[in-house]
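Q: Could you write out the predicted structure for this multi-component system? I'm mainly interested in how the pieces pack against one another.
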Amino acid sequence: MIDLHLHTSASDGALRPADLVARAAAAGITTLSVTDHDTVGGLDEARSEAASRGLTLVNGIEITAVEDERDIHLLGYFFDPSDLILRAFLLRQRDDRIRRIREIADRLESIGAPIDREPLIARGLEEGRTVGRPHVAAALLARGYVQSWDEAFDRYLEKGRPAFVSRCGASAAQVVGVIREAGGLASLAHPGLSRIDAQIPGLARAGLDAIEVRHSEHDPPTEARYRALAATLGLAVSGGSDFHAEGSVRRSALGTVTMTAEDFRELEARRRA
Ligand code: AMP
Ligand code: ZN
Ligand code: FE
Ligand code: FE
């Protein structure tokens, strides 16, 4: 089985990279990609664990772009993680994530729901790790302001809610450019969640290589629609579970949302590095 969308503790996943690879192996996955938010910090550990188990690890990342205050997630595959332009770009992403956490914490304080911000900022400054709203959600949960992560997003953190702070950063087309410059393939993550269909043809002209057709929050009609769109635009398809943790965000279990060997071959055939 092939799963090209997995998170680890390098970003907002619960499992260390080696533990994630072990769990994926136990679920029957043989080719996987670790795609943490705005960091490649989990790849080395995942790669050595995958090698020792005879699994194939595809270098991966999920980069957040922003347009009109909306986040757009782009997956990168088969790139060079040591590429200097990519590394410089990821440092800017990290700085903006920390700026955002500070502003979210300010807002939470002003509405009477203060959190302990220093551990979150320290985490965001750690080499190879990124911090994000899920960590704020965990802090809100720890303080007892909410009963679940979902409630933290619904009440405070989503766009339109009182502690929402927009990101500052690159557009989707610019992120496609960074991934390609590092020798990678760019795939538009979970378009069924991002809802930016009108922009997909423009992204294809900007060099987008694929669309994430298979995803744990795509129902069969959504999957069929994006598969057809990929074919129309001459794009490959990718797929994966977007697993973060058992019983948490993206509730899918490992090994339940995978992509076919044929789709993977077609994706890999486009690789440049
Ligand atoms: P950030 O990287 O700070 O923008 O946080 C985005 C991440 O938060 C997503 O990748 C999901 O893992 C998680 N997330 C987004 N929306 C929700 C939600 N409504 N409930 C729980 N987790 C969410
Ligand atoms: Zn996430
Ligand atoms: Fe995502
Ligand atoms: Fe993801």
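A: Regarding packing and overall arrangement: The pocket of zinc ion (ligand 2) is lined by residues 7, 12, 37, 244 (CB under 6 Å).
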